[in-house]
Design brief:
3 domains, Jelly Rolls, mainly beta, seven-stranded antiparallel beta sheet, six-stranded mixed beta sheet, about 290 residues
């Protein structure tokens, strides 16, 4: 009895030429699962093929191992006529059916026809909508890299954030840098000092002096004259009295933030200083 061995690769699906397997018996199969049908009906080892349409099919299962099958052909070629030759091996690869006869001669059946595509499968059920929520927010050291981690799942994400704090400031009250528009004036001794402003409606947010002293800023010369007796006693704040200074700060050294800001009108600032100094004001328009 002649036996034929076939090899099937993953993802192969071929229609065997009619009559090629006729009279042969499927003896065994091996390797990853695959299917052989005749006229659309699956066959198992022990099945003898007729003249029907034979299809060999294996899904693209990702397995690199080949599948195999063995066909047994009855007869030994010793009858009254000339001895024939049987099929010794058969391989289905790359869309071609090839093999060898029992006498060692190779044969090639060419490209096998591919069966028609099957019907489209049913539509899958809708997936669950994904959700995203905020988990924890942690303050990290200054200069650290910000982090985001997911402590949930891909469909129910919970994001935890790590945010670095800002770097500590330097200089504090000794910072002499000013923002806004800087206006300056110099007093050679304690007394009045007038500084011209480019704005009509303005506010003062910072005072800087070149020497420790007390500074009071008024919206008019008459307010400064009326309040002359309070220059050394008013605290570091803005009074709401009509004749009180718009800004007054005691013991200024370097740059000093104004405790509160109040807008006022006028193109000149009227100062009183308690010592010789250069005064620089940070002025912002309203």
């Amino acid at each position: 009895m002649t036996k034929t061995r076939g090899i099937v690769e993953a993802g192969a699906e071929y229609r065997v030429p009619v009559g090629l397997f006729q009279g042969m018996t499927l003896e065994s199969v091996s390797g990853p699962a695959f299917e052989i049908t005749e006229d659309g009906q699956p066959v198992q080892p022990g099945h003898t093929f007729g003249a029907g349409v034979v299809v060999v099919r294996r899904t693209a299962d990702g397995n690199s191992d080949d599948s195999g099958f063995v066909l047994a052909e009855p007869g030994d070629g010793t009858g009254g006529g000339e001895a024939g030759r049987g099929i010794a091996t058969m391989t289905i690869s790359g869309g071609n059916l090839t093999g060898t006869y029992t006498d060692g001669t190779a044969w090639d059946a060419g490209t096998l026809p591919v069966g028609p595509a099957g019907p489209q499968g049913p539509k899958g059920d809708p997936g669950t909508a994904a959700t995203v929520t905020v988990g924890t927010v942690t303050t990290l050291a200054a200069g650290a890299q910000a982090t985001v981690t997911n402590s949930g799942t891909s469909s129910a994400a919970v994001f935890n954030f790590g945010i670095p704090k800002g770097a500590d400031g330097t200089g504090g009250g000794d910072d002499t840098s000013l923002g806004g528009t800087a206006l300056s004036g110099t007093a050679s001794s304690a007394g009045n000092l007038d500084i011209t402003s480019p704005y009509v409606l303005q506010r003062i947010s910072k005072i800087a002096t070149s020497a420790p002293c007390t500074v009071a800023v008024y919206a008019s010369a008459s307010d400064r004259t009326a309040d002359a007796g309070r220059i050394t006693s008013t605290p570091n704040s803005i009074s709401d009295l009509s004749v009180a200074p718009v800004v007054q700060a005691t013991t200024v050294q370097g740059a000093m933030e104004v405790a509160a800001e109040r807008g006022f009108t006028g193109s000149a600032l009227y100062l009183y200083v308690s010592a010789s100094t250069t005064v620089t004001l940070e002025v912002r328009p309203l």
